[in-house]
Amino acid sequence: MSETPQTPGAADSPHADVERILLSAEQIEQRLNELGAQIAEDYAENPPILVGVLKGAVMVMADLSRRIDLRTEMDWMAVSSYGSGTKSSGVVRILKDLGTDITDRHVLIVEDIIDSGLTLSWLLANLRSRGPRSVEVCTLLRKPEAARVEIDVRYVGFDIPNEFVIGYGLDFAESYRNLPYVGVLRRSVYED
Ligand code: IMP
Ligand code: MG
């Protein structure tokens, strides 16, 4: 079997649309190991239910959850805020709700990226209205705008520049989620 390409450029592959790699698979793995250990320590007395936000957080959840050495549970929500563009619309719809009653539970939201923070603010308000004991957030990536808004994000993998990124779960028009790294999408792909 051939090795998974780690460099952009191979024609006819999603790697060809990557301008540059921002975070390698190794960097992501190492950071998630650190966050998993920290979460296991912080929640040792109060194992959380991990709530992943589909579809972008699939990779983060898969890798992070395996580094959290606690009896956690896992559930998923799907919300839509973007359509197929590259800017947040601010309108959030629930596409799939939790299957779990989170009343009196410790909830840890697992996110791929926080950009404007609109999606997360909405999600936090929604989950808090269900009477959980606590709600915290772990995100792999955070863009500069999100760092300025009033959302307390307890665990942040990386603060990244304000560029549109793909890979490791993150999509552009539903593609590129399977790239093993986080890369910057070539502007030519979404600008005429
Ligand atoms: P926000 O509401 O602006 O914080 O946007 C959050 C959601 O937008 C994320 O969960 C992603 O689905 C999507 N998103 C924001 N920035 C990017 C990006 O650079 N690449 C891919 N998806 C993004
Ligand atoms: Mg998302």
List the helices and strands and how they pair.
Elements: E1 18-23, H1 25-42, E2 49-54, H2 58-65, E3 73-80, E4 93-96, E5 106-114, H3 118-128, E6 134-142, H4 144-148, E7 155-159, E8 165-166, E9 182-185
This protein binds inosinic acid (IMP) and magnesium ion (MG).
Short account of what is shown:
Helices cover 22% and strands 28% of the residues. The model has no long low-confidence stretch (mean pLDDT 91).
Protein model, in words:
By secondary structure, the protein is an alpha/beta fold. The chain has 4 helices and 9 strands. The chain has helices spanning 25-42, 58-65, 118-128, 144-148, and strands at residues 18-23, 49-54, 73-80, 93-96, 106-114, 134-142, 155-159, 165-166, 182-185. The chain has a 6-stranded mixed beta sheet, with helices on both faces. The protein has a 3-stranded antiparallel beta sheet with strand order 1-9-8, with helices on one face. Helix 1 packs across helix 2. The longest helix is centred in the first third of the chain and has 18 residues, at 25-42. The model has no long low-confidence stretch (mean pLDDT 91). Inosinic acid binds at residues 56, 81-82, 88, 112-120, 164-166, 170.
Rounded Rg = 17 Å
What small molecules does the structure contain? Answer: inosinic acid, magnesium ion
Major pleated sheet: 6 strands, mixed
Strand order of the largest sheet: 4-3-2-5-6-7
Number of domains: 1
Give the H and E element order.
EHEHEEEHEHEEE
Tell me the β content: 25-35%
